[in-house]
Amino acid sequence: MNTTDAGVAYVRTPEARFKALHDYPFAPHYHTVDGLRLHYVDEAASAADEQPAVVLLMHGEPTWSYLYRRMIPLFSQAGYRTIAPDLIGFGKSDKPVKINDYSYQKHVDWMLQWLHDIDLRRIVLLCQDWGSLIGLRLAAAAPHRFERIVVANGALPTGDEQFPRIFKIWRAFARYSPWFPIDRIVAAGCTSPIGSAARHAYRAPFPNAKYLAGARAFPRLVPSTPDDPASEPNRAAWRRLEAWHKPLLTLFGNRDPITRGMAKVFQQRVPGAQGQPHEWLKPAGHFIQEDQGAQLALKTIDWLAQLGWDDLSE
């Protein structure tokens, strides 16, 4: 057990847990935020100009950067610097052991600090699940760093919406169930089976229950009432998105019961989404990266190529 200078107790998953993971050959990179070590994949573009655009891949609950293992090489080969962080509490990043040490705002602050510290610019954000709840807040807070957004099975709730029954069941399960099988949770969100190697990789960050506080915390941090602490900050982020004229594309799975209907919300509310080639990827469940990862990457790459980069803000 370790403790930050602010007194936050945390654990760090032993590196041996990540040894020889299937399809995950990426060198680790680390940065400290608020006394916690944050891990990220940072793969250079195979061939590009001196300052290639950055594809920022944001994962959700309860996954980590392994979710993007098949997509990272495709973006790198297409000429993009490709970065996939592990949120605090997940993957190779440090994990506070108390659920109350996690909040929506802390996650945004941690990632915003990291974003500024490593000075990412010319960003193409591709976000899913909690990757969108955090990633869209980042784009709203630092719009000069972001040029394109792809939302894939994502949302930015304010607590004013009606949540599907399946989400309420999931939130109760995460809070009360003594059994929290990460690999089975991921598998349940896919339309295609995931193999034993992938199941092992999704279990790897969590050797025992004390490592699971972040994964258990996330469902209850989704603003589900209008007076949630995150509701007004998310409304403010929506106001910025409603003035967002840079391109935004939705690529959603056709069989995701959690974010069903959100693609249309982005298409209607964000000016930059007008006239874009929005699409449903089939068949794909909640974890669209597992079901249609290559298709998701290639459609994003094609879209970026069609747009070009002549209208960058910097």
Q: Would you mind describing this structure in some detail?
A:
The protein has one domain (2-307): Rossmann fold (3-Layer(aba) Sandwich), CATH 3.40.50.1820. 34% of the residues lie in helices and 18% in strands. It has helices at residues 72-77, 104-117, 130-141, 165-176, 182-188, 196-203, 213-221, 231-241, 262-269, 288-307; strands at 2-3, 9-11, 28-33, 36-43, 54-58, 81-85, 95-96, 123-129, 146-154, 248-253, 279-281. The strands form two sheets. The chain has an eight-stranded mixed β-sheet, with helices on both faces. Helix 1 links the parallel strand 5 (54-58) and strand 6. Helix 2 crosses helix 3 (130-141), helix 3 (130-141) packs across helix 8 and helix 5 crosses helix 6 (196-203). The relative contact order is 0.16. The mean pLDDT is 95.
SSE blueprint:
Blueprint: E1 2-3, E2 9-11, E3 28-33, E4 36-43, E5 54-58, H1 72-77, E6 81-85, E7 95-96, H2 104-117, E8 123-129, H3 130-141, E9 146-154, H4 165-176, H5 182-188, H6 196-203, H7 213-221, H8 231-241, E10 248-253, H9 262-269, E11 279-281, H10 288-307
Parallel strand pairs: 5-6, 5-8, 8-9, 9-10, 10-11
Antiparallel strand pairs: 1-2, 2-7, 3-4, 4-6
